[in-house]
Automatic annotation (TrEMBL):
It catalyses: deamido-NAD(+) + L-glutamine + ATP + H2O = L-glutamate + AMP + diphosphate + NAD(+) + H(+). ATP binds at residues 289-296, 396. CDD domains: GAT_Gln-NAD-synth (cd07570), NAD_synthase (cd00553). It comes from the Bacteria. The gene is nadE. InterPro entries: C-N_Hydrolase (IPR003010), C-N_Hydrolase_sf (IPR036526), Gln-dep_NAD_synthase (IPR014445), NAD/GMP_synthase (IPR022310), NAD_synthase (IPR003694), Rossmann-like_a/b/a_fold (IPR014729). The keyword NAD applies. Keywords: ATP-binding, Ligase, NAD, Nucleotide-binding. Belongs to the NAD synthetase family. In the C-terminal section; belongs to the NAD synthetase family. Pathway: Cofactor biosynthesis; NAD(+) biosynthesis; NAD(+) from deamido-NAD(+) (L-Gln route): step 1/1. This is Glutamine-dependent NAD(+) synthetase. The lineage of its organism: Bacteria, Pseudomonadati, Pseudomonadota, Gammaproteobacteria, Oceanospirillales. It is an enzyme of class 6 (ligase). Deamido-NAD(+) binds at residues 372, 401, 511.
Length: 542
């Protein structure tokens, strides 16, 4: 009788650039897989040793030496178990995105990624040379094929493995999250499993890296395309699976994680994104302005869930136009969350600025200059707290606002991380209701009241913007799906609304270039995902 092959899937959260630290984690996990899980083979994510994406760290002259030292250390310190892991590797002067198989001090197989993505957030062709040959090795009589991330989204590499006659496919991944990605992955991996006629162990990394979220959600897919197991969403985890060579069956040894509704999926992604950005960059805590509005209300809830209340500080900075309702609601949420909370009026700061500016601005009628000055007073206060305490300033602008420039440079945009940068306003409301379903921390009237920046008397966002249901749909079509103005109008939107919104998006590119990074959750976020010129004569139209 054949002996089942026990595989441990290491759904880990690596730190980009920390090759020694990542190597230690690989060694520690491999020994744990061998001694505590009795695994025969342990599988790690794509580019586990360097972290993903390493970007221009791949161009550093010492990369080759560092990776070679890491591999030698693994070979020297781990025996009695086979490791399959990803790393960048030079071969004859060319850099490859590699998967290596290490067993008892020997590198027995290497496979170079064949399909190098160069779209959306990916630019692997900037760094890597594509491989062309299949990666196949034997373990306990089982012929195992290797695939790296993008490879499995294309049929070519899988056809090679089918021709090579493999029994099992191992897929190493660093696949970033966006809404609906979990379902897309499962469908694609199922197609590949059916194509090659063998089960697939699909391992994805977890963790936040700047604006990218890696959500885990590792998969076990049968040869028939059935999802046998799904790993946890946005969490590190170790999973053991048994493969029976006689039957070709994969048997997970843990219970599959439950499928999540969209709001839960996005909210957990935001929490992990904040936690990893703060912790990996060494900040002791965060500070933000708590205005009594829904954006800051959701942001502070995410921050507390990510870091704990003891590492979150909120400051209410009222002005003459700030309503008593906003002051009351900000304090109520701060108390519900148990965070440090202070109130600092910006009236004296604003008056002082206006007094000094009066000789320079006399003769000019009041306009948005005075409104923006209020926001800039608040930015100065938050940045001073940040400087003194070492806290990261969280900004609170949502995707709808960032798209049309409804924000103030060096004011409410002053900070280091924008939690809601890729969250449309309509989704902000949905996430706020979801968070309250767990425990009510956001006052209900914050959710119910019309949104307002409160920079002028009786001001609401809809004074200068279309209704958010309309605005967000137009923005989705233009920003995420590249519809033209006419194509959006043909969807039933008012031409005046469409032309105005598209113009605002285009002319505010200069603001977005100066905005903090924030976690990406849509298929096209602002930043590395959407690169438009600031200086441009392009006119929106057909």
């Amino acid at each position: 009788m054949s002996t089942p092959l026990r595989v441990l899937m290491a759904q880990l959260n690596m730190l980009v650039g920390d090759i020694p630290g990542n190597t230690s984690r690989v060694i520690e996990t491999a020994l744990k897989a061998r001694d505590e899980h009795q695994a025969d083979l342990v599988l790690f994510p794509e580019l586990a040793l360097s972290g993903y994406p390493p970007e221009d760290l791949l161009l550093r002259p010492s990369l080759e030496l560092r990776i070679d030292q890491a591999l030698e250390r693994i070979k020297a310190e781990v025996s009695g178990i086979t490791l399959v892991l990803g790393y960048p590797r030079y071969v004859e002067g060319a850099l490859y995105n590699m998967a290596g198989v290490i067993r008892d001090g020997e590198l027995i197989c290497e496979y170079a990624k064949q399909c190098l993505p160069n779209f959306q957030v990916f630019d692997e062709q900037r760094y890597f040379v594509a491989g062309s040959q299949p990666g196949v090795f034997e373990h306990q009589g089982v012929r195992i094929g290797l695939s790296i991330c993008e490879d499995i989204w294309h049929s070519g590499p899988t056809e090679q493995l089918a021709e090579a006659g493999v029994d099992l496919l191992l897929s190493l991944n660093a696949s970033p999250y966006h809404m609906g990605k979990e379902t897309q992955r499962a469908e694609v991996v199922a197609q590949r499993a059916q194509q090659v006629g063998v089960p697939v162990v699909y391992l994805n990394q977890a963790g936040g890296q700047d604006e990218l979220i890696f959500d885990g959600n590792s998969l076990l897919i049968s040869a028939q395309g059935e999802t046998l197991f799904r790993g946890a969403h946005c969490e590190e985890a170790l999973y053991t699976v048994s493969f029976d060579p006689a039957t070709g069956q994969l048997t997970p040894e843990q219970t599959s994680a439950p499928a999540l509704e969209l709001e839960a999926s996005v909210y957990q992604a935001l929490v992990m994104g904040v936690r990893d950005y703060v912790n990996k960059n060494g900040f002791p805590g965060v500070v933000l302005g708590l205005s009594g509005g829904i954006d800051s209300a959701l942001t502070v809830a995410v921050a507390v869930d990510a870091l704990g209340p003891e590492r979150v500080e909120a400051v209410m900075m009222p002005f003459r136009w700030t309503s008593s309702m906003s002051v009351e609601d900000a304090e109520a949420e701060a108390r519900a969350l148990g965070i440090q909370y202070d109130v600092v009026s910006i009236e004296p700061l604003y008056d002082s600025f206006m007094q000094q500016l009066q000789p320079l601005l006399s003769g000019y009628a009041p306009d948005t200059t005075e409104e923006n000055l209020q926001a800039r007073c608040r930015g100065v206060l938050l940045m001073a707290i940040s400087n003194k305490k070492g806290y990261l300033v969280l900004t609170t602008g949502n995707k709808s606002e960032m798209a049309v420039g409804y924000s103030t440079l060096y004011g409410d945009m002053a900070g280091g991380f924008d939690v809601l940068k890729d969250i449309p306003k309509t989704l902000v409301y949905r996430l706020s209701r979801y968070r309250n379903s767990l425990s009510p921390v956001i006052p209900q009237r914050v959710i119910d009241r019309p949104p307002s920046a409160e920079l002028a008397p009786d001001q609401t966002d809809q004074d200068s913007l279309p209704d958010y249901d309309v605005l967000d749909r137009i923005l989705e079509l233009y920003v995420e799906r590249d519809y033209s103005a006419q194509a959006i109008i043909d969807e039933g939107f008012e031409p005046a609304d469409v032309n105005r919104v598209l113009r605002l998006v285009d002319i505010n590119e200069y603001k977005r270039r100066q905005a903090p990074v924030g976690p990406r959750v849509t298929q096209r976020g602002f930043g590395r995902d959407r690169r438009y010129p600031i200086t441009s004569g392009w006119k929106a139209g057909i």
